[in-house]
Write a structure and sequence with these properties.
The chain is mainly alpha-helical. Among the domains are: 144 residues, no CATH class; 93 residues, no CATH class. It contains 24 helices and no strands. It starts with a helix and ends in a 26-residue tail after the last helix.
Length: 442
């Protein structure tokens, strides 16, 4: 091939077979980056002597790839990949798949007609369950799934990608999920995507935030069609795994999980609404806290979902307070209207005292100051609250440490006061704990 490409002209068949030739060459690049057998090295040394080729076998393969692209007049592609050091990345076995992805993106960007042709060749290779080159092939395929010419092959792509979801390789799982995000936008594949629900929910336990975000994106894409209803078992499973994700370290995961939780509430089938009430009730306080999140998108999504949850639970008063953005009145009314669950609300608030976000720590302290006054004759819970607040009195933030100390003193004083003094039910005026204006809008 190298000798032919050095000629001033090339056979017309090179154009017709160029996708196959490129795939074969790229595969040769990958193979030659692996441990090369001694007999191959010996053979290549003889080739170097006879043909005056001073470079290694894998660099020679890359040089041939570039020559073929030059022959096909893909000059913009060559420059773009060179600028991003793609050819060097292609030479290392650990980064080969990144280079394949880069090559695919640049071909897709320049609307290169070879793009879908190469993808179809790789689709055929992947369908044979060939293991040793499936990561680079998958990396290329995922980048070009949105090509118009690939639409008619979406079913085959879905089948191939689905098989990689349970792969032991993190990179393969991540690439498979990226492909699934693209395919989940196609209404024609809705049934196939839905059949993967259980597998995807199992992967939500993954420690990799990017993997979790991709799975949540697949579910959200699937529910874009508002005519799609969620069955009761699926809604309950999703609600159970989504709630802990509100507090994920990755703010993008938090945002997507909150948005998906709202979609579940809105789209659950009628017969599934009653079993879902428990999960929605348990989401009220975490959503209230995240209304004060430092990430504006998370805060806005939390407020919208909190409003949806109050409506779902038919808590008219709380719904109106959220709608008017009177969030601290909401915080006062929640324990007042549901005194039987005050201890549960306080237990939910305690982990937020250790939040890396200062606004969330502050909101948690203020809520504990409000709800803690309803906790009477519950020595075990009271001791836990005192201990948690005491631990925060040495917080790195002077504001937080001071507020924790003030709240601790107020609660101790309230516990000593005669129970007959009681507490008023929620009013329309906002209270302040510790003499400082609460975080958020009032």
């Amino acid at each position: 091939m190298w000798e032919i490409l050095r000629l001033p002209w090339c056979p017309a068949s090179f154009i017709e077979y160029s996708p196959r030739l490129l795939v074969a060459l790229l595969f040769q690049v990958f193979v030659s980056t692996l441990d090369t057998p001694e007999e191959v090295n010996t053979f290549w040394k003889r080739c170097q002597e006879q043909l005056s080729v001073p470079i290694s076998i894998n660099r020679f393969a890359v040089q041939t790839v570039r020559a073929l692209f030059r022959h096909l007049r893909c000059l913009d592609l060559l420059v773009a990949v060179e600028r991003k050091h793609g050819w060097d990345t292609l030479l290392c076995v650990d980064t080969h798949h990144y280079a394949m992805g880069l090559l695919a993106r640049e071909m897709h960007r320049t609307a290169n007609p070879l793009c879908s042709c190469i993808a179809l060749r790789l689709l055929g290779l992947l369908s044979t369950q060939e293991q040793h080159w499936d990561l680079p092939a998958l990396a290329f395929l995922v980048e070009v799934l949105e090509c118009h010419d690939m639409r008619e092959w979406s079913d085959s792509a879905l089948e191939i990608i689905s098989r990689r979801l349970q792969s032991k390789s993190k990179e393969k799982r991540r690439l498979a999920l990226r492909g699934l995000v693209v395919l989940s936008k196609d209404p024609l594949l809705a049934e196939g995507i839905r059949s993967l629900t259980q597998s995807l929910m199992g992967l939500l336990q993954d420690a990799d935030g990017e993997v979790v975000a991709l799975i949540l994106s697949v579910f959200l894409n699937e529910l874009q069609d508002r005519a799609t209803l969620i069955s009761s078992p699926t809604a309950l499973q999703l609600a159970e795994v989504l709630r802990p994700l509100f507090d994920h370290d990755n703010s993008h995961v938090s945002l997507l999980s909150i948005r998906l939780f709202r979609a579940v509430i809105e789209l659950v089938m009628d017969k599934g609404k009653k079993p879902l009430k428990k999960h929605v009730s348990q989401s009220l306080l975490p959503l209230f806290f995240h209304c004060h999140d430092q990430n504006w998108h998370v805060a806005e999504a939390s407020r919208e979902t909190l409003l949806c949850a109050a409506k779902f639970l038919k808590m008219r008063r709380l719904k109106q307070l959220v709608k008017k953005e009177q969030l601290w009145k909401f915080a006062e009314c929640l324990p007042a209207e549901d005194r039987n669950r005050v201890a549960e609300h306080l237990r939910q608030a305690l982990p937020y005292l250790q939040s890396p976000q200062e606004p969330l720590r502050e909101v948690a302290i203020r809520f504990i100051g409000i709800a803690g006054r309803y906790l009477r004759r519950r020595q075990e819970e009271t001791w836990l609250i005192y201990k948690a607040l005491q631990d925060v009195t040495d917080d790195i933030s002077p504001v937080i440490s001071s507020l924790a100390l003030q709240t601790l003193q107020l609660l101790r004083a309230a516990q000593r006061a005669p129970y007959s003094s009681g507490f008023r039910r929620c009013k329309t005026t906002s209270r302040r704990v510790g003499g400082r204006k609460p975080v958020g809008n009032n």
